[in-house]
Write a structure and sequence with these properties.
With 498 residues, the chain is an alpha/beta fold. The chain is built from 13 helices and 14 strands. It has two domains: 352 residues, Alkaline Phosphatase, subunit A (3-Layer(aba) Sandwich), CATH 3.40.720; 62 residues, 2-Layer Sandwich (Arylsulfatase, C-terminal domain), CATH 3.30.1120. Strand 12 and strand 13 form a beta hairpin.
């Protein structure tokens, strides 16, 4: 019998599901042995990178749930994390770049009013809404919700009852317990907070966070209270330090030492997923726990040029770029243990062993979690995502738009761009702050050219213009801030000439 059934007259844990968002930093769509890409019939197709990585627990989760072949995040970390917790696109919440803790990193021509401060309670963040509805809210791992001194610097200020290891930092000072996760050795300015009891041990950071998460799950189960766990691993972000538990699995490869280290970070993250799933089963609460697994932006695997078909092959590009490899991420949804007789699973049925080819986005998580919890979206809180419930059943949701807008008005691997997808078509618009009247356009048909090799902007002028005006309208409706010229004037998109 589950702990939830022993709760007595209140039975909160049975009436409402536990919810886990399992977030992996810098994990792209191809950083796994689980294939997400499909053929024209919707069957999974393995590619060489799927043969390189080892993620058996992602495979286990996918067997009992559903994975999405086309799931979009923002192209860098903080914007995606803000979108997950608000249901809003980066254009609306305006955290359009990753947040540098100590100083404003708008970059040279970035908008001066971008939201470097990050999230606050005024944004109706997901943990706060759930906390007010009676959930125990737990944060474990990387936060990166706001800069030093901001309200969002401490997840406890955003509605989390518990915050373990979360602060303004976006990368760990070290993954090694021997180094105190940056406190004793490594990058001390990025030392991971709150894990002092593991300092000087041989416990890898991913494992330490997993133990902390298991402890919090156990405490919540004993309290018979529904919980929301946001487990956000620092892995697989740089520095690429080897998780020695798995290094022997990759020693015979001719890949670089950095690529091998990255692969161990991937496998360590996957092992954590398995440990969390095992914990739920041991406590008897797996049937009543919804798990959402995803990455926060495209891959950062050290496998080749950042805008070519290397780290995300066959997709093009990697983290921070305007191409599919920079913004497509793995997404799997499942119950901890499928049970058709469970009342929460009847309320939110999830197909088993299925692949959903309809698009999903990080903005969809907010309304989906609230629906699962039986909680309404706060009044006057605008969201850009749509509830995933129908898509989780493996069905098509005609109410969900087949569009995605990624707006990055800053300088990075991909600089000063907006990428807009509608159905099979994708437009990339480049702002050129030093030559404001000379924008650049690229147009791709992702159905015929998923690798983004053939720019159709000149051969399909009607389609280009249509996509441009759709993009422009979407930017304006969401309140986008634009790059600025050398005089500080916003560079609004300029229509193509034909």
């Amino acid at each position: 019998m589950s702990l939830a059934l022993l709760a007595g007259p209140v039975l909160l844990a049975q009436e409402r599901p536990n919810i886990i968002v399992f977030l992996v930093d810098d994990m792209g769509l191809m950083d796994t042995s689980l294939p997400f890409l499909t053929d024209a019939s919707g069957n999974a197709v393995k590619h060489p990178l799927n043969e390189w990585y080892q993620t058996p627990n992602m495979e286990r989760m996918a067997q009992q749930g559903i994975r999405f072949s086309t799931f979009y995040a923002q192209s860098v970390s903080s914007p995606s994390r803000a979108s997950i917790l608000t249901g809003q696109n980066a254009t609306r919440h305006r955290t359009t770049n990753w947040i540098y803790s100590e100083s404003n990193n708008k970059t040279k021509y970035g908008p001066k009013d971008w939201n470097w401060q990050g999230l606050s309670l005024a944004d109706a963040p997901l943990p706060y809404v759930l906390q007010q509805a009676g959930y125990r809210t737990i944060h474990v791992g990387k936060a990166h919700f706001g800069c030093i001194g901001s309200e969002g610097e401490d997840p406890a200020h955003l509605g989390f009852d518990v915050n373990i290891a979360g602060s303004s930092i976006g990368e760990p000072g070290s993954y090694y317990g021997e180094s105190g996760y940056g406190h004793l050795k490594g990058n001390k300015s990025r030392a991971v907070p709150g894990l002092q009891k593991y300092h000087g041990t041989n416990l890898f950071l991913t494992e330490a966070l997993t133990l902390e998460a298991q402890d919090q799950i156990t405490r919540a189960a004993k309290e018979h209270k529904p919980f929301f766990l946001y487990l956000a691993h620092y892995a697989v972000h740089a520095p690429f330090e080897s998780d020695k538990r798995f290094l022997s699995h990759y020693q015979n490869s001719d890949k670089s030492s950095q690529a091998k280290a990255f692969a161990t970070l991937i496998e360590g993250m996957d092992y954590s997923l398995g440990e969390i799933m095992n914990c739920l089963e041991k406590l008897g609460i797996a049937e009543n726990t919804l798990i959402l697994f995803l990455g926060d932006n495209g891959s950062d695997a050290p496998l080749g040029p950042e805008k070519e078909h290397t780290s995300s092959a066959p997709l093009r590009g990697k983290k921070g770029t305007e191409f599919e490899g920079g913004m497509r991420v793995p997404f799997i949804a499942s119950w901890g243990k499928p049970d058709r007789n469970n009342r929460n699973q009847r309320n939110l049925p999830i197909a088993s062993g299925a692949i959903q080819r309809q698009m999903g986005t990080v903005m969809d998580i907010y309304p989906t979690v609230l629906r699962a919890a039986g909680v309404s979206v706060p009044e006057n809180h605008v969201i850009d995502g749509t509830d995933l419930s129908r898509r989780l059943q493996g069905k098509k949701d005609n109410k969900s738009p087949e569009t995605m807008l990624v707006h990055f008005p800053h300088e990075h691997r991909g600089s000063y761009f907006t990428a807009y997808r509608n159905g099979d078509w994708k437009l990339i618009y480049y702002y050129h702050p030093e030559h404001p009247s000379e924008p650049e356009y690229r147009l791709y048909n992702l159905k015929e050219d998923p690798e983004e090799n053939q720019d159709l902007s000149e051969s399909k002028p009607v389609q280009l213009v249509q996509m441009f005006y759709e993009m422009q309208a979407r930017l304006e409706s969401e309140g986008a801030l634009y790059p600025e010229d050398s005089s500080g004037n916003p560079l609004k998109p300029i229509a193509p000439k034909w």
